[in-house]
């Protein structure tokens, strides 16, 4: 009987409201059969084909990142909007989307590798949990969450994607936590793109062009945005030396401005607190429009806004090149306190900033 079940390509119930999928069986068939509120258990090994989750309350759970691996194979169709900054025919590994909205979906314990779009693409989800998920060598994005809220990204990894390793895009009230995760080899490690109410905590971002980018920019045909009321705290952001941007459509960060050697950038943000982070060893590997490890600048020329009312406190920003900190907007509109800073513009930011607004 055990031999027959192994050869059978039909996923089997594992317990009440659970379906277990072995390598070689169809993950998409299991997700479709499971229905709302079910758990789909992906056994250890390599599973092929992308997966589209359209039911609420579904948990897609592997045996652990690096143990359960999802790679390209049969393509499941989806009604999700085209992926930002990607050709229309790309395929994302796991898509979470329903035309009527979807809630309380979890993806846990697996690696998504080698897809032409994103590793995970979640759109209009209320209540999303990504835990112990690796998105590795996916062409455009790693973990990409758009127009969603109630987002929990923890102990994840985004590696070697053209744009963001972990990205929140147009999540106006994200109520998001991105924590205890690692991003390496991307244009932007953690990218908060026109999203507000996000907490970015205890992450490691290294080997990117920019470790963390928080950006308010207006894109033609996209929703109005803004980046407000966010906390960036207790992160290690180091050795970001890649070069991104330029006209080559295959290049890292294609079509964007040249960026390299950036640790944390606040561009057009409002009421963002950057507290207790450690930035070191960030230096450009090519020309960069942001020549510092920590950058605060305006996005008004791109249709965004000036950066105002941001707080930079208790950060250690030393050993970066050519500058540790560069603030190109009105410094009196920011709060700076108790930072350890090396070379800076303005020069008055160098050393230990005194309590109060500089």
From TrEMBL:
It comes from the Bacteria. Residues 94-278 form the Right handed beta helix domain. This is Nitrous oxidase accessory protein NosD. It comes from Saccharothrix ecbatanensis. The lineage of its organism: Bacteria, Bacillati, Actinomycetota, Actinomycetes, Pseudonocardiales.
């Amino acid at each position: 009987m055990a031999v027959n079940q192994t050869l059978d390509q039909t996923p089997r119930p594992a317990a009440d409201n659970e379906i277990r999928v072995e390598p070689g069986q169809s993950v998409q068939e299991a997700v479709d059969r499971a229905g709302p509120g079910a758990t789909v258990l992906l056994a250890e090994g390599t599973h092929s084909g992308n997966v589209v989750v359209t039911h609420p309350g579904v948990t897609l759970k592997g045996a652990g990142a690096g143990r359960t691996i999802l790679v390209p194979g049969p393509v499941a169709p989806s009604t999700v909007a085209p992926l930002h900054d990607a050709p229309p025919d790309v395929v994302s590994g796991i898509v979470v989307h329903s035309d009527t909205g979807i809630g309380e979906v979890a993806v846990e314990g697996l690696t998504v590798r080698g897809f032409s779009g994103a590793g995970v693409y979640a759109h209009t989800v209320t209540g999303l949990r990504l835990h112990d998920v690796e998105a590795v060598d996916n062409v455009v994005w790693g973990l990409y969450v758009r127009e969603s809220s109630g987002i929990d990204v923890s102990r994840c990894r985004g590696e070697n994607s053209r744009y963001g390793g972990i990205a929140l895009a147009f999540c106006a009230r994200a109520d998001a936590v991105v924590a205890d995760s690692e991003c390496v080899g991307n244009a932007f490690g953690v990218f908060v793109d026109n999203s507000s109410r996000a907490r970015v905590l205890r992450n490691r971002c290294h080997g990117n062009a920019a470790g963390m980018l928080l950006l308010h920019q207006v894109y033609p045909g996209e929703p109005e945005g803004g980046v407000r009321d966010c906390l960036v705290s207790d992160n290690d952001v180091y050795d970001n030396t890649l070069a991104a941007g330029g006209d080559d459509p295959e290049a890292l960060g294609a079509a964007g401005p040249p960026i390299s050697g950036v640790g944390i950038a606040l561009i057009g943000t409002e009421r963002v607190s950057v507290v207790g982070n450690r930035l070191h060893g960030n230096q450009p590997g090519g020309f960069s429009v942001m020549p510092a490890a920590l950058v605060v600048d305006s996005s008004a020329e791109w249709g965004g806004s000036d950066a105002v009312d941001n707080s930079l406190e208790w950060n250690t920003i030393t050993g970066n090149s050519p500058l540790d900190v560069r603030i190109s907007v009105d410094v009196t509109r920011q709060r700076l306190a108790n930072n350890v800073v090396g070379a800076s513009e303005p020069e008055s930011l160098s050393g230990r900033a005194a309590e109060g607004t500089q």
